């Protein structure tokens, strides 16, 4: 006979979390809502950076210069 009623309230808004374990029950990695928001913000910033700076072309074209090898310089080590 309980004189004080016990009221159990379930927490419905407890959030979510994904946890991945290996075969020997060791935690490999977990994904929380804060991690998902950070990943989403990083993806948006990376995509916008790529779109803004990745497709910009230089104003001046650089001519390729062939290196001139000086034949008068003797090598430090002569390997035959």
Molecular structure report:
The structure is a single chain. 26% of the residues lie in helices and 11% in strands. Strand 1 (18-21) and strand 2 (27-31) form a beta hairpin. The chain has a domain at 9-48. It has 80 residues and is α+β, with helices and mostly antiparallel strands. The radius of gyration is 32 Å and the shape is elongated. The longest helix is centred in the middle third of the chain and has 21 residues, at 33-53. The chain is built from one helix and two strands. Strands 1-2 form a two-stranded antiparallel sheet.
In terms of topology, how is this protein built?
Elements: E1 18-21, E2 27-31, H1 33-53
Antiparallel strand pairs: 1-2
């Amino acid at each position: 006979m309980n004189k004080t009623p016990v009221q159990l309230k379930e927490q419905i808004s407890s959030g979510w979390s994904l946890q991945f374990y290996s075969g020997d029950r060791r935690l490999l990695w977990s994904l929380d809502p804060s991690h998902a928001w950070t990943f989403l913000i990083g993806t948006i910033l990376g995509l916008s950076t790529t779109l803004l700076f990745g497709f910009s072309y230089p104003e001046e074209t650089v001519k390729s210069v062939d290196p001139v090898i000086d034949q008068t310089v003797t090598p430090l080590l002569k390997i035959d």
